[in-house]
Amino acid sequence: MINHILSGFTGKFTWVFLVLLILSCSKSEVEEHLEEVFGEEVITSDEDENLQDDDSDNDDSSDDNDSNSENLGVITAKVNGNDFHTPEMEGFRFGSLDRQDQLYYLAIGGFDISGGFADAKYIYIYLIGDDFDKLKAGKSWNSTITDLTAEGAWGVYIEDANSENEDDAEVAIALDDTQEIEVHITAFDFETQLISGEFSFTGTDEDSNNNYQITDGKFTNISLKYQNN
Prior knowledge:
This protein is of the alpha+beta class and 229 residues long. 22% of the residues lie in helices and 40% in strands.
């Protein structure tokens, strides 16, 4: 079912394919691919700590760095009580908004690489709305998608995405595994294409039978790539 859905929404699921690539790549290959995608050298968690130490010694540039980080957006959540947090680097969170008359498709996702690329985690939220004029602060979803032309929401959570054994990589909650989901938009600026909100969802990995609860989810100032078809 997942592959069928993805084949019909290739443009909207570009980043899902990046996740699938991570499932089958070694750490070095992942780093090389991300460097190619983002056009710059990928910073590992150890290097990032060194950069943070260097930044503390450069007070003159701290204001500029703070200004840039404010525009990056962030996604945070608890996964079975454990922290999920996208890094303060470009390219590790994304958003897209595709409109077809009043029908629209909103996608928001991001990576947590705090444990390194070998332990990368990924959260992805896919929303469908049937009245574009109501896409504003206060808009909510509380049911899963049953029809691709009607309102609903899906959640995806992936962990151990770069396992040495591909069979051990765990797509914990896939598109058709979402059992309960709630998403609430807290801010949306159509002119700047920045969106913020809160989310939670639950599901069971059909292979391991492990239950996952994604709680206290927040996405803040996520930049959307807008397309009006």
